[in-house]
Structures are given as structure tokens and as C-alpha cells.
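Field notebook, page 207. I keep forgetting to write these up properly, so this time I am using the form the group agreed on. The chain and the ligand, flavin mononucleotide, are recorded exactly as supplied. Prediction of the bound pose follows.
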Amino acid sequence: MITRNLFKTALLSAAVVLSTTVASADDGARDGAKQSKNLVVYFSRTGEQYGVGVISHGNTAVVAEIIAGETGADMFEVKPQKDEYPATYKELTDYAKKELFENARPAIAGSLPDLSGYDTVYIGAPVWWGDWPMIMYTFFESKCGQMEGKKIMPFATHAGSGLSGFDRKLSEACGKASVGAGLAVTGADAQKDPESVKTAVKGWLGK
Ligand SMILES: Cc1cc2nc3c(=O)[nH]c(=O)nc-3n(C[C@H](O)[C@H](O)[C@H](O)COP(=O)(O)O)c2cc1C
């Protein structure tokens, strides 16, 4: 596990490569005839990311899809209402740092899923500056009431910091949520070794 300062050094020394962003993954919870008892909620970015170059499919999206594949879960992607996140790494880290320092609550696009019919909600995001991206706190605070009585399973992708207290921070943001053990996967594994991620997900799910 690396400290925030060490990570900052790594961030600053990373090469900045111009990139384009390509939209990814599901747009919302599926409207199938039969609703699953499981839901995967995730936030993920494409464009230039740490250690993996320019990606067209976000690291957390890859993990979210593996979890959904293993559990038959519906999916909901948290997308910003106003997407101003830069597609270049250095600029994105600066933007996210500002959001963190301002304790921002960026608005989420579209309507949020109704959690009432779900037993288990898997919630994942990239680690940003040792924390959940601020937009995930928008989700936690909006949906805290509906998280009561559900099994909430946090997962993270990262570049060395591990889970970074995602479980504890989610519990703090929503005391009503019963938060289970988290899963942490590196972004590099998500992009380059999805089979190892599948194995890790299965272990996490107790399969
Ligand atoms: C703004 C920002 C801050 C980050 N902060 C951390 C961090 O504190 N610790 C860490 O291990 N990785 C950090 N990373 C790396 C991401 O967590 C990692 O690349 C992640 O897999 C990106 O997932 P995504 O493609 O789903 O957005 C950061 C990346 C960004 C863009």
C-alpha cells in the first residue's frame, strides 16, 4: 500500500498523453422482465489512466461487468450530469483533487435506481486520492435510506493503494448500510489480466 504522498509523486511523474474518451458500459439498470436480486453500481472513467495508457473501457467497468456476469446482477453506471472530467491523466487528477478539497457533490445524470427490490448491491469506483470519487458520495447520500437492510459490497480499482478504506468510508457516509468486506483490484489487472480478476471476484463472492 502506498501513501497518498507517494502516490502524488507517482502522479506527477507520470507522462501525460493526449487521449480521447469513449463511452462505456451500461447506461442504467436493465429493464428485464424479471429483476435480479443483485445490482452493480459503478463509476469508471476511460481516457488516459494510470499505468494502462489510453483506455476505451474503464478499469472499474471491467470489474463491474465481471461481478454482474458472476451474479446475474443488473447494472447502473454512475455518470456525471455535466461531464467535465478531463480525459488526460494529470488534468483529471487535478480536477479530482479540487472536488475532494471542496467536498463536492457532483450531480448524477438521469434517475437513480430504486434499490428496494435488491438484496445485494455491489458498489465500485476507482480510488481517487485515497478516497471514493466525490460523485459516489452523491449516490450514497441520495440512496442511503434505501440501503438499509441490504448487503452492500464495496469494490475498488486502484494503482497501489488497495481498498483505501472504501468499506469504512461508505459506512460513515451511510450508517444504515450494512457494508461487507471489500474487493480491491489493480487497474492494470482489469485491463491486462481479466482472468485473474474473475478468479478474485469468485473468491470474493465465495464461489
Ligand atoms: C484522480 C485520480 C486519483 C487517483 N488516486 C489514486 C490513489 O489515491 N491511489 C491509487 O492507488 N490509485 C489512484 N488512482 C488510480 C486509479 O484508482 C486507477 O487507475 C483506477 O483503476 C482507474 O479506474 P477507472 O478506469 O475505472 O476510472 C487515481 C486515478 C485518478 C484519475
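OBSERVATIONS:
- The pocket of flavin mononucleotide is lined by residues 7, 44-45, 49-50, 58-61, 92-93, 96, 126-130, 157-161, 187 (CB under 6 Å).
- Residues 4-14+36-205 form a domain with the Rossmann fold fold (CATH 3.40.50.360).
FOLLOW-UP: compare against the apo run.
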